[in-house]
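Exercise: predict the fold of this chain.
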Amino acid sequence: MPTEAPVKTPTKTPTEAPEKTPDPEKYYSPKRLCDDQKRDGGFRTAPQK
């Protein structure tokens, strides 16, 4: 019983967690774009990579 539990948990966690985190951050950060747009007024958003 204590073997099937830790095997089903670390399998769905490290697969759905690291794949959903570096995905949006590696492509385009919606939180960073919002901060840049609010700071620059929507001017320097793309060239500020």
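Check your answer against the key: DSSP finds three helices and no strands in the chain.
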